[in-house]
Design goal:
This protein is an alpha+beta fold. It is built from five helices and eight strands. About 40% of the residues lie in helices and about 20% in strands. Helix 1 (about 10-35) runs antiparallel to helix 2 (about 70-95) and helix 2 (about 70-95) packs across helix 4 (about 170-185).
Length: about 230
């Protein structure tokens, strides 16, 4: 019994505490790793909480003055993002037995290679997307987490899996290369699902790649940094 409200809310309270714990673990991990990857090439990283953890990353020549941008930096950032999502699956699995209300998490990436126009708003100290075409990108971001696999009632987001949503085939080819690389590192299972998504209001023509994170059999804290180094050198 809540002494102030006079109502019983045991399940809700345990759910909220478990969710807060997961968000804290993932949020702290992302902040630590993002600080490291900033050293590769400066970029804008914006993390915010909804019912989970979401973030935007913007990278490009217009964000820097004294360095030369190269598409290789975007590729490395995408590989880094895939690796961090794999690691968050393991982090949450490790925490699961300690949660008052056991929860699973789902992982999604929205790949967007087309340049967009953004401006920095001093009043809110954040970037805003500009232009009608670019605003469509914001609409997709807000609705894609509810996406269904075309012809089914199955949610694209599934526990233990990573969904990569895209609209251009060049994005798919790049991520499939990354996936093969991570499979060879024994971080993902061999199954790769290539899916079409049901249309949503204002969102159509989207496709997705879905992969399954391989269960970790032993701790290997060095594997993340080695992957970045190997991919960058190659």
């Amino acid at each position: 019994m809540d002494p102030k409200l006079g109502v019983v809310s045991t399940n809700r309270k345990s759910f909220e505490q478990s969710l807060a714990k997961i968000n804290q673990v993932i949020g702290n991990y992302l902040e630590k790793e993002e600080t490291k990857v900033q050293q590769m090439f400066p970029h804008y990283f914006e993390k915010f909480k909804t019912d989970g953890i979401e973030y935007n990353i913007y990278i490009g020549q217009s964000l820097v003055k004294d360095q030369k941008y190269d598409p290789l930096y975007l590729k490395n950032l995408r590989l880094w993002q895939l690796q961090t999502l794999i690691e968050t699956v393991h982090l949450v699995a490790h925490q699961k037995n300690e949660l008052q209300h056991p929860l699973d998490v789902t992982q999604m990436i929205l790949a967007h290679s087309t340049p967009i126009s953004i401006s920095f708003r001093l009043d809110e100290r954040k970037f805003d997307v500009e232009g009608a075409y670019n605003i469509r990108y914001e609409i997709i971001k807000k609705r894609i987490d509810k996406a269904l696999v075309k012809g089914t009632r199955e949610r694209l987001n599934q526990p233990g899996k990573i969904a990569i949503v895209y609209s251009q085939e060049k994005e798919a080819r790049e991520y499939l290369d990354f996936i093969k690389y991570l499979q060879n590192k024994d971080l993902l299972t061999k199954e790769v699902e290539e899916l079409e998504l049901e249309e949503m209001q204002g969102v159509y023509g989207m496709k997705a790649i879905r992969v399954t994170v391989k269960e970790r059999t032993q701790e290997n804290p060095e594997i993340f940094s080695k992957l970045i180094a190997e991919r960058k050198e190659g």
